[in-house]
């Protein structure tokens, strides 16, 4: 049922955005797996069997992304996930990624507390997805609200799925709009 | 470093199957992009030395980033390419100054040898403009299995006074290449062509 055709990674290193250069450049990374959609072209009532089979994919992608970013799990401060479903599929096929994608990252990052924000859409090859990012332990940390634009040239084909994980190593490069600070969080309820 | 870099982006595209057939080993293409300030934006400058020197710096930096992202030794690189997108405050010739005079030598060092021409593309563009970076075998331009391209694009660049410079390196040809022509095991790799 699980057939990965392509894996795509991208890492951005942001030194500044027309302000003072950051002491430590911000890294934003994403990994996308292009899979065959086993449910393409029909309405399949029971899609749940696929979810569990995605667990190892989630773990592999998480590890691959951290390696591509050249960091260790403790350096990751923000995360998000997303899915792009090819035109012969339905949005619900993208929703299968929530549990395996989210829990793989939370596990590898040391039981991260915050919900993993997400976005999904149905799209043509090359469709771009803005993957939302929040702090891994407290969703309300304002400095870490961000998004990473992800697309895979040529994917998803009509019968494919693109599953995405995204991570950052810190706050926006010139964050200065206040709110809850990362240094102030309790990190118990996943919110503050 | 002369280049004022705002961002570096590195992408790796790994193809494991195509049309339901396994690609073994998977083909892998890397592209590294630098978003730099265009020191000559907004005016006509006769002398493009500053950009030529920036090109030299970026050839090494971006070439090494690609090799590193592929996790290979320099000698395992098989094809390469380069491209630039100039923001609207610059001129196309600025891309030529970065890409052509000096970028090649340090790139060739990063991938070992590189007898062949580094294929290139350039354009004027705006935020999110995409450019297809042409790829050719690094030691013999006629190797047909390695004619390819990889798309380079930065969502928030180039701004008016910026240039996106891209270098692509692969450790393989196209997935399931089967249209004949010169094969990589047949090359001499001396004249850069065959």
Brief descriptors of the model:
heterodimer; A: 192 residues; seven-stranded mixed β-sheet; 4 helices; 19% helix; globular; B: alpha+beta; 60s Ribosomal Protein L30, Chain: A; 20% helix
Question: How would you portray this structure in words?
Answer:
- The complex is a heterodimer of chains A (192) and B (194).
- Chain A is an alpha+beta fold.
- Chain A has one domain: BB2672 (60s Ribosomal Protein L30, Chain: A), CATH 3.30.1330.
- Chain A is 19% helix and 29% strand.
- Chain A has four helices and seven strands; from the N terminus they run ββααβααββββ.
- The mean pLDDT of chain A is 96.
- Chain B is an alpha+beta fold.
- Chain B has a single domain, classed as BB2672 (60s Ribosomal Protein L30, Chain: A, 2-Layer Sandwich).
- Chain B is 20% helix and 35% strand.
- Chain B contains three helices and seven strands, in the order ββαβααββββ.
- In chain B, a hairpin with a 2-residue loop joins β1 and β2 (21-37).
- In chain B, α1 crosses α2 (92-99) and α1 (49-70) runs parallel beside α3.
- Chain B is globular and about 50 Å long.
- The mean pLDDT of chain B is 96.
- The interface between A and B is medium-sized, with 22 and 19 residues.
- β1 (4-14) of chain A pairs antiparallel with β1 (5-18) of chain B, so a sheet runs across the interface.
Q: Quick gist of this model?
A:
By secondary structure, chain A is of the alpha+beta class. Chain A has helices spanning 49-53, 55-69, 91-95, 98-108, and strands spanning 4-14, 26-36, 78-85, 118-122, 129-135, 146-150, 160-168. Chain A has a single domain (4-184), classed as BB2672 (60s Ribosomal Protein L30, Chain: A).
Biggest chain-to-chain interface with counts? A-B, 22 and 19 residues
- What are the segments of chain A in which pLDDT stays under 50 over at least 5 consecutive residues? none
Query: How much helix, percentage-wise, in residues of chain A?
Result: 10-25%
Mean pLDDT of chain B: 96
Radius of gyration of chain A: 17 Å
